[in-house]
Amino acid sequence: MLQPPPSLNLPPFDSRxxxxxxxxxxxxxxxxxxxxLTPEEWVRQHFAHYLVNHLHYPKAxxxxxxxxxxxxxKKRADIVAFGKDTQPFLVVECKSYEVKLSERTFQQxxxxxxxxxxxxxxxTNGLRxxxxxxDQQQQRFEFQSRxxxxx
Length: 151
Description:
By secondary structure, this protein is of the alpha+beta class.
C-alpha cells in the first residue's frame, strides 16, 4: 500500500506512484522512468515541477541528477537548468525534508558549480529554499529573495 509522502512548501503536482515490492516508486517525467521514492527524491520531483510549472523553465532544458566530475570524482548535481545559450543557468541541491539546510549544503552546491559555472545556485529541503546569484568575476555571491524565472 502506498503511503502518501508529506506535504512540502512547494506547489503540488500530478504524480504517478506505484509499489515495486516493498519499495515505493514515483514516475520521473524528466528521466522518463520510475525511480525509488526517497525523501530526497520527493523534494527533487517537487522542485523540478515547480521550476517548469511555475517559473516557466522548459522541461527539456532541465537535467535531473546531472553527472559531473569534481576534483576527479564522479558526482551528480540534483537539478541543473540550462539557459537559452545551452549553458548551465541554475544548479539546485536537494536534501530530504528531514535534513536541516546548512552552510555545508550550500558548499556542496558551490563545489558542483565550480565545474558548471551557473550564475545561480539554490538549495532546498522542500520546506525551506535559498537562492544566490554568483558573480564569477568578483568571486562573490548575493542571496536572492526569490528564484529567477526563466527568460
